[in-house]
TrEMBL record:
Residues 5-194 form the Starch synthase catalytic domain. Signal peptide: none annotated. Its EC number is 2.4.1.21. GO terms for molecular function: alpha-1,4-glucan glucosyltransferase (ADP-glucose donor) activity. This is starch synthase. Coiled coil: none annotated. InterPro entries: Starch_synth_cat_dom. It comes from the Bacteria. Keywords: Glycosyltransferase, Transferase. It is an enzyme of class 2 (transferase). Pfam families: Glyco_transf_5 (PF08323).
Length: 256
């Protein structure tokens, strides 16, 4: 299955995050598709734990410079890029001083969830969409991994519904057993700025409630773990999207 344009959007990827199922699987899938002759690109957040020096990240000036309005505030979008170590595969990092400079992923040093995790996810989702458009690169497949990426299909089918840029793009969602962490109660208000309403997750917003909602906005759902936790399994079964059980990197081409 060569000559496809495949975009992986993920919150984790080896070697930038080690010893995680998601990070390992995304790494293997991206390399497999890249090695099979496809045009593969990866987008992920530039979390503060990712060393710019070690992984040779550098800012892409022509892509940076946009502002994204989150919670009625302008937030500058910074795009950094690196080649996957030892490979000719480009990884793009969504960055912002306010949201991603901190060294922790989702919790402060006392173990309390960051109050702006919702804003960070919205910024990441919109940042990916806007950057892909600025690249003038239309993916055939967008493969989403991790709770932050689950906001992308929601935005594409609501906020960007009249934008024809992605009209022929198919969306694949891999669902993983991630920690379910509550999001700030102002999530409904913030998404309301972008005219997004009516989501079940807005009543009790959390990481996995958005993953559950996103299942209604994608073409194919793949199990990222062989066995999903009860709430995810229930949402998976209820979804009208095409479904696939767990697949390893060698088998994922069957979905595309």
């Amino acid at each position: 299955m060569p000559n496809q344009k495949i975009l992986y959007v993920t919150t984790e990827m080896y070697p930038y995050q080690e010893d995680t199922n998601m990070g390992s699987l995304v790494h293997k899938m991206a390399l497999k598709m890249h090695g099979s002759g496809n045009d593969v690109r990866v987008f992920m957040p530039r979390f503060g734990q990712i060393s710019e020096r070690k992984f040779q990240l550098h800012e892409v000036i022509r892509l940076s410079g946009m502002n994204i309005i989150i919670n009625d505030l302008d937030q500058p979008l910074i795009i950094k890029v690196a080649s996957l170590p030892g490979e000719r595969l480009q990884v793009y990092f969504i960055d912002n001083e306010e949201y991603f400079k901190r060294k922790q992923f989702y919790f402060d040093d006392e173990g309390k969830a960051f109050e702006d995790n919702n804003e960070r996810a919205i910024f990441f989702a919109r940042g990916v969409i806007e950057t892909i458009k600025k690249l003038n690169w239309v993916p055939d497949v967008i493969h989403l991994n991790g709770w932050m990426s689950s906001l992308i299909p929601i935005y594409l089918k609501t906020y960007y519904k009249d934008d024809t840029y992605f009209k022929d793009t198919k969306i694949v969602l891999s669902v993983y057993n991630e920690d379910d962490i509550e999001l700030n109660e102002n999530t409904k208000e913030i998404l309301g700025f972008d005219n997004i309403s009516g989501l079940q997750s807005l009543d009790k917003p959390s990481f996995l409630s958005f993953v559950n909602d996103s299942m209604d906005y994608v073409d194919v759902i793949v199990k990222g773990n062989e066995f999903l936790e009860d709430k995810l399994e229930e949402a998976y079964e209820k979804s009208n999207a095409e479904k696939s059980d767990y697949l390893n990197a060698d088998s994922i081409a069957n979905v595309y």
